[in-house]
């Protein structure tokens, strides 16, 4: 049985669960300074415990003893059920289960179970396409586990499970921020976590975080940085020799090779990623990996759009029966729309691109890709002026997202289309904009 000596840790956990600061929990009889002392181990009085329990909305016994062993076992079982539902692609069901657990007023007295619940709920929100809610939850978790403006003490690396959990939260947050178009924040989270968790040594999860950071660099068009990080991750993965590490490193390494126009290298790394993945059981990653390799094929070998389409249809089926997010599925659908365009059906491609952009307005990265496809369909239908206007709008959006290389390309393509239409004045302005934005990407 816990004693009052543990009341501070219990209080901190319950406060974090309710997203309260010390100042917000304090009052005339309990200052923020006094609360800090209690959380640091000073024994609270009976009156203080009663006042805190009333403010936190839980029985005083919770602040003395936390969850009982029986309730803790029940929560673990319910968490396992929610995890299973999410893994099977039933995100709405999983979200309800996680939310029910998160509503237990005493859950915060077991920080480990609270953290698992919050991360599961954030992943379910992401899977539902509710990216802003997932980002808010993951940001709070990051602030509780490892605030970005603080150095981790050496003892933080002693518990490998805690380290893996910190990396898992940062990885999910980095990914969600990338999808809503906040590439600066995505890179910031990824870089800080990547650098401060490396002293603990390379792990599968660490390489997966590096690959997620690499994906953000790819979206920003930072090719030199992408090449360097891709090489570092591949070297570390080969040293580890585990399927998860090799899959992550080869997966995004293939994308970097595709960006460089090295179709042979992209194909080799893609094959290695698939071979490593064959040793794992992860339906969501199976679909995402296959879809990414199909996108690389469309980039380097557009004439092979029929083969890419078959890969994408298989990936779509795999994603639909897994924990894949709505955004994962939307990217796959967008690539399928591109195969329609390449097969000579720009109308079908345009319809799908517009539907995807309308269905996921918060996923700005996805919306930008969808609008670029819309511009391509307009050009294919000889509506070149309209294509140029759409592309310029995407350039504006990408510039706001701090993706200068991609923004510069959008403005340059718009300029070429305006020149084709005979609007030389507008074309010159667009070329100047492309050069101006492009200079930022080289800084």
Automatic annotation (TrEMBL):
This is Helix-turn-helix transcriptional regulator. It comes from Nonomuraea mangrovi.
């Amino acid at each position: 049985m816990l004693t009052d000596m543990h009341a501070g840790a219990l209080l901190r956990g319950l406060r974090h669960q309710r997203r309260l600061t010390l100042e917000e929990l304090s009052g005339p009889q309990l200052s923020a300074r006094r609360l800090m002392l209690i959380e640091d181990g000073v024994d609270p009085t009976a009156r203080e415990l009663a006042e805190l329990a009333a403010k936190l909305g839980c029985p005083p016994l919770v602040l003395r003893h936390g969850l009982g062993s029986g309730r803790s076992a029940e929560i673990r079982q319910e968490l396992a059920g929610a995890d299973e539902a999410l893994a099977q692609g039933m995100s709405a069901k999983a979200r309800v289960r996680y939310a029910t657990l998160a509503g237990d007023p005493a859950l915060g007295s077991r920080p480990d179970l609270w953290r698992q619940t919050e991360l599961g709920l954030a992943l379910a929100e992401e899977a539902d396409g509710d990216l802003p809610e997932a980002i808010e939850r993951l940001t709070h978790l990051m602030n509780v586990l490892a605030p970005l403006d603080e150095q981790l003490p050496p003892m933080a690396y002693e518990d490998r499970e805690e380290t893996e959990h910190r990396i898992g939260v940062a990885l999910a947050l980095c990914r969600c921020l990338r999808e809503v178009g906040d590439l600066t924040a995505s890179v910031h989270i990824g870089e800080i976590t990547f650098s401060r968790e490396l002293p603990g040594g390379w792990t599968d999860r660490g390489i997966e975080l590096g690959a997620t950071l690499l994906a953000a660099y790819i979206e920003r068009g930072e090719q030199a940085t992408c090449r360097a990080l891709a090489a570092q991750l591949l070297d570390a993965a080969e040293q580890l020799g585990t399927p998860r590490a090799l899959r992550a490193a080869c997966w995004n390494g293939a994308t970097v090779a595709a960006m460089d126009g090295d179709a042979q290298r992209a194909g080799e790394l893609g094959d290695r990623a698939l071979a490593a993945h064959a040793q794992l059981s992860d339906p969501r990653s199976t679909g995402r990996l296959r879809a990414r390799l199909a996108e690389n094929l469309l980039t380097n070998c557009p004439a092979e759009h029929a083969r890419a389409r078959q890969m994408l249809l298989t990936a779509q089926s795999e994603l639909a029966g897994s924990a894949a997010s709505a955004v994962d599925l939307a990217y796959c659908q967008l690539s399928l729309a591109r195969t329609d365009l390449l097969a000579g059906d720009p109308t079908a491609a345009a319809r799908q691109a517009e539907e995807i952009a309308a269905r996921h307005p918060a996923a700005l990265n996805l919306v930008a890709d969808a609008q670029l496809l819309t511009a391509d369909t307009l050009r294919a239908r000889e509506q070149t002026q309209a294509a140029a206007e759409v592309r310029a709008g995407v350039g504006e959006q990408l510039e706001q997202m701090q993706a200068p290389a991609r923004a510069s390309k959008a403005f340059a393509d718009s300029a070429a289309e305006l020149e084709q239409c005979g609007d030389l004045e507008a074309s010159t302005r667009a070329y100047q904009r492309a050069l101006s934005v492009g200079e930022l990407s080289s800084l």
